[in-house]
Amino acid sequence: MPIRQLSPQTVNRIAAGEVIERPASVVKELVENAIDAGAHDIEIVMAGGGLSLIRITDDGAGMAPADLALAVERHATSKLSEEDLFDIRWLGFRGEALPSIGSIARLEIASRPRGSADAFAIVVDRGRKSAVGPAAANAGTRVEVRDLFSATPARLKFLKSERAENMAALEAVRRIAMANPEIAFTMTTGERASLKLPATDTTPDGLLARLGRIMGRDFMDDALAIAGERDGVRLQGFAGLPTLHRGDQSQQYLFVNGRPVKDRLLVGAVRAAYGDLIPKGRFPLLALFVTLDPRAVDVNVHPTKAEVRFRDAAAVRSLIIGGIRHALEEAGHRASAQGGAATIDALVASLAAGGDAVAGAATPYTTGAPRSADFATSTTGWAGAPRSFVPHRPSRHQAGFAEAMQAPFAAIDQPSADTAADAAPFADDVLDRPLGAARAQLHETYIVAQTRHSVVIVDQHAAHERLVYERLKAALASGGVVRQGLLIPVIVNLGAEEVDALGERAEELAELGLVLEPFGEGAVAVREVPALIGNGDVAGLVRDLAAEILSEGQSFALKERLEAVASRMACHGSVRAGRRLTAEEMNALLREMEGTPYSGQCNHGRPTYVELKLSDIERLFGRR
Asked: Does one domain contain both 179 and 92?
């Protein structure tokens, strides 16, 4: 079969297939052109999911008639300096977007240069170009795309619903708007304004304001500023606290030189930076901006420029990991600000849905003879309150109806028992500490603390697990884990395969502070444990490690997964739910949490405490 050259129309349609996947692709290309033209205000209008109409209007530099005629030709661009593909300083540079769009739709461009009184327009109707002629237009450029994919109708069957196409285009504009807070964006789909973003300044506060309008108030409240620079690579942006996460990566925004990208290197760096702070299968919220010399990154490795290639990928990865980890360490014990509000909302919903059930559950505490076990549990560990409840005992005198109604409340302003013996005074300034003063232990699991303006509820097991874990990591980093010999070895019964698996890793486990040896058939004897886990659940730890070694096989290298093993040890060596704590122990736990990085979440990424603001509690009771 003889070789022949394709016609320009066919070539343009092939290019359109590479660049224009759906209406959102058209919106992205045209908005980027407007930004490159120096626009300060961009308006986007869509109808029919972008198939009927896409109109982009900007107040940029505009184009003269000669430039307008060239703009719709293939590979005609003003954005390459001496045709150097390794010095890309613009969002668009190939000169493919406009001719590709014009080959599969009706494209009309009207433009008026700044300072000029005359405007001009050109039309490209499915590959057929008209001559440039006069037009009526404001300064800047207006691009209209109608009947998208009418020249390639087979493409239409691969598109989704009108709403889905609108949402995809909206997401493309949001990503671009994040990197350009100084530009105002307005987007209308159908007859409804879907997006309206006023221009802000380019300071960190201005950037956070723009991000907050797109990512939501939750992100603004829990965002940590990220900043760093190394070897000519600059990193800035905001990352959410580990306790603020989602089930997908839709709220992770990454940019390179102002260009939104979905790069595997950057995604992997983010995952490594958060490490064990996020539950498995969950993803943190963030918007990060990497800026570097255009010659140090290749943005021309993907048809839609969604992926990039760095000259020094390791340096970029290291900067991202270091920048995020530094911010997380600086945040210390801080947890999501939304935890308390979410708790209040859950309480309101619960009361609204099952008020009768809640009232019924409270009955044993308010009427009849109180159960001593209930009161002992509910008041255990109170600082400045009795450790046991002394119920009101009715006198033998039978009061009349009126007296009976008043009697239970007659001494409500008096203490129900002598509290002097168990009072645990604390300095008033402790209330100004982030986690305040411990006031109670509920169900031998939750510590209730009081600050000046809030109530804090701490999960004692989750909190102590993080503290032990951080100590173990510090010990590993300093060169060794202090071991504690057991007076009586712990014998753990296992299967033969599990015993063999542990035996093969005995030396590595010893380096981590866990010394064990075979003990007869189907058992091991644990003789030493890491000192930090003390009298924790040694048998549970050994069983978990054996199961993990077997499931991972030869790929399970303990030395390469020290932190994962340390996390497992911390879980089995921390204060368990159900253990009574004294007021001193509870306050010591709070103080250590305040001084320990990442203590706002446990090793599994769950919050270790929630803070209920007094203002929220007052609203719950209708006091505000």
From this structure: yes
